[in-house]
Amino acid sequence: MKEQYEQIAIQYHSEVLEKETEEILWGIVVDADKNLFQIDNIPFYGPELSCEDIVHAKYDEKAKRYQLVHIEQPSGNTTVQVMVLKEKYNREDLYNEILYAQTEIELVDDYYFVINVPAKTDYKNVYAILAALEEEQVISFAEPNLSPKHNADIRK
Predict the structure, then answer these.
(1) Residues 127 and 133: beta-carbon distance below 8 Å
(2) How does pLDDT run across 43-97, given as a tens digit for each residue?
C-alpha cells in the first residue's frame, strides 16, 4: 500500500527567527481514524519535534490542512540547527563530514541547515564533529530537541 502524506501546520515562537511563526511539515498517515501521523521531514526552526515523531493533528476546515495538537510518541531522534559562520568554507566538505556520521541534512540556504540524528546513531560522534567546527568558528549550533538517548551518548 502506498504511503499517504498530509501537510501538518505547526505554530510556535521561534528562537532562531525571534518571532511567532508557522512551519508546514509533511506527515505520513499512521492511523487515519485517530489522526496520527509520522513526521517525514526535519523541522527547520521549530519546537521540540523531530523527524519520525508520531504526532496527533486535527483537520482545520478553514485552512484545509492539519494542525499539530501534540506529540503522541517521540521517535528518539534529535534535531540540530546549524548556522554556517564562515563565508568561504567548502559547504560540500562540511555536509559530507556530518552526513558521514550517519545523519540526514535539510538545507534552508548556504548559511542555515538542520540535521536529523536518528535514534540508532551514536550522538557522541556527531557532537564531536559539531563542537570541533564550532570551536574553529566555522559553525554555531543548537539542539532544540536532544533526545534522552543522545544526551546519554555525549556523557559516556
Answers:
(1) no
(2) 988 778 999 999 999 999 999 999 999 999 999 999 999 999 998 889 899 999 9
| Contact (CB, 8 A) for 138 and 82 | no
pTM of the predicted structure, to 2 decimals: 0.92
Q: In 3D, which of 33, 42, 50, 37 has the Cα closest to residue 7?
A: 37
Residue 47 CB partners (closer than 8 Å, separation 6+): 10, 12, 144, 145
Residue at grid coordinates 515523531: 53
Q: What distance in Å separates the CA atoms of residue 150 and residue 124, rounded to the nearest whole number?
A: 8
**Residue at grid coordinates 521540540:** 48
Give the single-character DSSP code of 60: E
What are the grid coordinates assigned to 127, written together? 557532537
